[in-house]
Amino acid sequence: MDWLMGKSKTKPNGKKPPAEEKKQYLELEYTKIRVVDFDLKELVVLPREIDLNEWLASNTTTFFNLINLQYSTISEFCTGETCQAMTACNTIYYWYDEKGKKTKCTAPQYVDFVMSLCQKLVTDEEIFPTKYGKEFPNSFESLVKKICRYLFHVLAHLYWAHFKETVALDLQGHLNTLYAHFIVFIREFNLVDPKETCIMDDLSEILCSPAPQPAPTPSAPASTSSPSAQNHVTER
Ligand SMILES: [Zn+2]
Q: What CATH class is the domain 24-31+38-208?
């Protein structure tokens, strides 16, 4: 099942998010601001003697909480009127319900769906077991990938539609650090298809340099490939 539909330029009658004319978040004034200044890669590599699934579970849960928190700082500005669709760069994300039915929804609705789903998954003892010796389900990796993919959408929307407000709150350093840490993490474990994250590559390259090896490992499972991602309209 493909969860992403990339489509459409700005609607002629739609309100333009301010960042659309110019990517303010790429300006040096902002990209140089980070809360930490050391190699993020060291934070994400699997520590020796730690089980891979345990590591993925704990990091994914932490990213879910931090991204939820970051979004909450600007959530009052993300309304059905300001953000009629879940946009990021030239992409509109549509929500697909559990039966695979495509739903058009506003950005705050989409984020609410994402956060509710993530909350449900990370607190499910059968999927994210916390008790010692309890096994992870076979579906664990694909669920982690799903969560990371949705969290990426939220981060991309924060930059695309709410960077100005983030700057007004003086939280751009936190956002940049969170974003860079997240991107380095998902790259390290091939958790999100690069076709999905490419819309933000310009920022990722600045914030995550030096970039890790670009090619995903050939052994990476195909999982949820997204052919429609190729339909993205780029205006660059
Ligand atoms: Zn919004």
A: mainly alpha
